[in-house]
Design brief:
It is a single chain. This protein has a single domain, classed as Histidine kinase-like ATPase, C-terminal domain (Heat Shock Protein 90, 2-Layer Sandwich). It contains 6 helices and 7 strands. It is of the alpha+beta class. It is an enzyme of class 2 (transferase).
């Protein structure tokens, strides 16, 4: 897919275009597209899903993919050894609504409390980021897009251990006829 318009996202003028999406497939494909980068750094990249079979969710696939790509790109950038793991699940399921829960966990350099607070500012770079390229814009876009989707982005990080981003997004759901 194409890159989303940063200015529109920042100004809140990005119009979400929700459609019925098979999330596990979208996540697998996005994950797969980062396989070569992970392999070149000898990082184990794994992608798992506990989505129930035959469920589609109504979401903007471009926006969701952009968020996942940005977070995955950062996780790989800041991880020098170990693993990056993505898990996707559908929680709080009722008749036609549920919540997508996705975690992106890395064994990278981790962030101090101070760095975590700076993270979503427009062009922030953490101390670890001096060796790497900037991530500020990508994370800010993630936060904005998730907010547009009525979702939430949180992180837990420990220096020297790694970082876990958790995304939750409420969605309409539909069961496909097998």
């Amino acid at each position: 897919g194409e890159i989303l318009d940063v200015d529109k996202i920042e100004s809140g003028n990005y119009q979400l275009q929700p459609q019925w999406v098979d999330i596990p497939t979208l996540v697998q494909n996005t994950c797969h597209s980062f396989g070569a980068i992970a392999a070149s750094k000898s990082i184990a990249l794994s992608c798992s899903s506990t989505f129930p079979d035959h469920y589609l969710v109504k979401i903007d696939p471009q926006a969701f993919k952009q968020v996942l790509s940005n977070l995955l790109s950062n996780a790989l950038k800041f991880t020098t050894e170990g693993a990056v793991k993505i898990t996707t699940s559908l929680v709080h399921i009722d008749d036609n609504h549920a919540v997508i829960k996705m975690t992106i966990m890395d064994s990278g350099s981790g962030l101090s409390q101070e760095e975590q607070q700076q993270l979503f500012k427009r062009y922030s770079q953490t101390s670890a980021g001096r060796q790497q390229t900037g991530s500020g814009l990508g994370l800010m876009i993630c936060k904005e897009l998730i907010k547009n989707m009525q979702g939430d982005l949180s992180l837990e990080s420990h220096p020297g251990i790694g970082t876990t981003f958790t995304i939750t997004i409420p969605v309409e759901i539909s069961q496909q006829v097998a």
